[in-house]
């Protein structure tokens, strides 16, 4: 506010996941602006597009490298009033460029009453966050999510996957996926706020190989990995396995066979636990889970892209069921979710309570366009009325552009894209 943030103007955040990222995001919302995550991999031109599109008054950057991108385009951003750098010391003084501590000190001059008035003037159906979709065609679109979209979805999805409230037992999560993406915001910011979860930040190079070290240190209770992350863990485990003695390899191979059979039966509703499964759990599964830091993790999830059946079966055979979820930025993240007592391999699960799916114009096999409805459906694209009309029909259904079908038990399968 002290930097001159105007109501419904953006605060762009450019950096790796950190406490400052969260504070800037939530602060922007409470101060009446839009929280706007910008991918750290964006070029200066791409940063300019987002900052210009959301009329950003303030940009928060992590380090000198990200700052350089902004300084390159600063002259083309008439709305920009200030830049804040949080991750490292400033290398040079410039007008309207602040370090994190200077930025924090500035806020002390804003009376609480002023902030409270702004907070109380906000309405649940007003926009609080913009998620820029990496447009495969044309420019990225700013997905407008309201306060209600975010808070309702965090609560509904969290309850659906049975997250525990901090009063009983605190959930622990590792934040490493890019926060400019809705999946990471939901899993790292909004559900932990809703349920009182504890968040640990991974190293910026997490996806280059340090993630497993962080997982081992934190031992999270819930973990969301994109398919590539699960594939990398699978590759790492296979290469370690290949180096072990032949006896160990035989035991592991036996345990994996037992694990897959037992878990597939479980998936189809059989609850008995055979003796050989218990033995395998003792000899193999527990050790494997410990080695990758998932020994306390009861909720392993994957989403954001298709995952292969092979990878799902690999983890299932080690008694690590990886549950698929499906949704899009325009649905505040999740729409269907798989849960331990209701999942099918290669299905994205069932609708979160309060969400509905319509298969639009199904063919003979029941395959049609997947459409969503519910309180998680976005407000529209910022300043793109035509695009919004393409996505939302007059009955309020969100058209995903994905093809899919339901099976007889109501599980959703995504089969492709509408060409």
UniProtKB/TrEMBL annotation:
One Pfam family of this chain: AMP-binding
Stretches assigned to the AMP-dependent synthetase/ligase domain: 2-382
InterPro entries: AMP-binding_CS (IPR020845), AMP-dep_synth/lig_dom (IPR000873), ANL_N_sf (IPR042099)
Compartmental location: Cytoplasm
Chain coiled-coil ranges: none
EC class (word): ligase
Any single GO CC term annotated in Swiss-Prot or TrEMBL for this entry: endoplasmic reticulum
Catalytic activity: hexadecanoate + ATP + CoA = hexadecanoyl-CoA + AMP + diphosphate; (5Z,8Z,11Z,14Z)-eicosatetraenoate + ATP + CoA = (5Z,8Z,11Z,14Z)-eicosatetraenoyl-CoA + AMP + diphosphate; (9Z)-octadecenoate + ATP + CoA = (9Z)-octadecenoyl-CoA + AMP + diphosphate; a long-chain fatty acid + ATP + CoA = a long-chain fatty acyl-CoA + AMP + diphosphate
Gene3D superfamilies assigned: N-terminal domain of ligase-like
Any one GO molecular-function label of the UniProt entry: ATP binding
Taxonomy, superkingdom: Eukaryota
Keyword list, A-Z: ATP-binding, Cytoplasm, Fatty acid metabolism, Ligase, Lipid metabolism, Nucleotide-binding
UniProt-listed Enzyme Commission number(s): 6.2.1.15, 6.2.1.3
Protein family per UniProt: Belongs to the ATP-dependent AMP-binding enzyme family. Bubblegum subfamily.
Listed name of the protein: Long-chain-fatty-acid--CoA ligase ACSBG2
Organism: Buceros rhinoceros silvestris
